Write the C-alpha cells for this entry.
Amino acid sequence: MSETQAALEQEEEALDPRRVASILEAVEAGDGARLRELAEPLHAADIADLLEQIGPAERRDFLALYAREIDGDILSEIDESIREEVIEALPQDVVAEAVRELDTDDVVDILEDLEAPQQERILDALEDADRVAVERALSYPEYSAGRLMQREVVVAPEHWTVGETIDFLRGADHLPDQFYHVILIDPRMRPKGYVTLGRLLSSRRAIQLRDIVEDSFRTVEATDEESDVAYIFNQYHLISCPVVDENGRLVGVITIDDAMNVLDEEHEEDMLRLAGVGDESSISDGVVDTVKGRLPWLLVNLVTANLAAFVISLFEGTISALVALAALMPIVASMGGNAGTQSLTVAVRALATRDLTEQNALRVVRREAGVGLINGVVFALIMGAVGWGLFGMPLLGAVLGAALIVNLLIAALAGVVVPLLLDRMGFDPALSSGTFVTTMTDVFGFFAFLGLATVVLL
C-alpha cells in the first residue's frame, strides 16, 4: 500500500469536521443506514468523542438510530459526565450485551458513576461469576487499587515449565482480552513472580518459569490508593501489576492502560483545580452544573480581591497626592501574579509526581527565592527606567523597581511554600493554592509599592 493510499484511509477513518457534519445530517434526516455507513470506520473512542461533542437533543436522536451498534468498547470510552444519560437512552438488551463484553475493571468503571437503579440494571445483565467479581470490586474503597483491577488473570504454578504453560494457554477456554504476564503463584495463591509473554514464547519448552521471571515484579494491595499505583507504574516502568488482599493472596491485576488513565485524570484534575473550575468539569456539562462548579471559586476570589482593595484604601491619600501611582499599580500586581503562577505550577506538578519531597524542599525553596530575586532585579531596572522616563521622576522609578523586587521574591516563595504547607496539612495543593498565592502577591505587592511611595515620595 502506498503512503498516499494509507493517508487517505486514515483520513476516511478520522473524526474530522466534514464527517461530523455528515453524521449530523444523517441523524437529522433519520437515515440510519447512512449513519451506520459513516460511523462504521470510526474507532470506539471517536464515537464516544462524537457523543460528547454534540448537544443533548442530537445525542438522543443519534442513539435512537445507532443504539444497536453501541458495544462495550464504546460504552467504556464515553465520558462519565454523559454516560448515565447514554445508558438511560439505550434498550436494556443492548446495555446487557455491551457490558458482557467488558472485563470487570471496565464494568466497575462504568458502574461507580451511576445511580443505584442503573447499577442494578447492569449487574442483572452479568453472569453470576462476573456479578460476584464486580460486586467484590465495588466493595473496595473508591479510588483504590481494588476498583482499578481486573479479576481476569493468567496464572501458573511456579514449578511449571515453559512448555506446560504454553500448552495450558492454548487449551484455555477463556483468556483476558489483554494480558502481558503469566503470574506465578504458590499453593496458597500468593504471587511469587511473573513472566512476560515475549520471554515465554522465546524460551525453550523445558525451561522452568521461575528461571525466566522479571526483575520488575511488584505487588500492590487492593486497598492501596490508585494514585500510588499509578506512581509505581510510572516510576518503575511496569506493564502490569498483581493485586493482593490483606493476606497476600492474588485477587486481580492492574494493566498499564488503567494506570495511565489514572495519571491522565489526575493531571486533568490538577489543571482544572488550579483554574478554579472544579475537578469534574466537562464541555458537555449544562449551564447549571457549570455555574455550580465555578461560582464558589469566583466568590473566594471576590473575597480576596476585597482584601487587596482594603490595602489600597489604606493609602488613599498617597494615591490622591500622586495619581501616577494608580497607573503603575497594575504592573506590580500583574508581574507578581504571573511569577507566582509559574512557581506554583511547577511545585504542584512536582508534588503530584513526587519529585518535590521533604528531602529536597528546602533546596527548591532556595532556588525559587534566587530566581524571584534575579527576575525582580531585572524587571526593576527595566520598569524603573520606564517609570522615570514616563513621569520624569527618578524616585518614582526607584520605588517601582523596589516594589517589583519585593513582590517577585514573595511570589516565587509563595508559589512553592503554599502548596508545600497545604500538602503537609493533608489538603490537595492544586485545589486552593492559586487563591492563596494570588492574594499574597496582590496584598504584598500593593503594600510594598504604596508603602514605599508614602515614605519616599511624600
Summary: The chain has a mean pLDDT of 84.
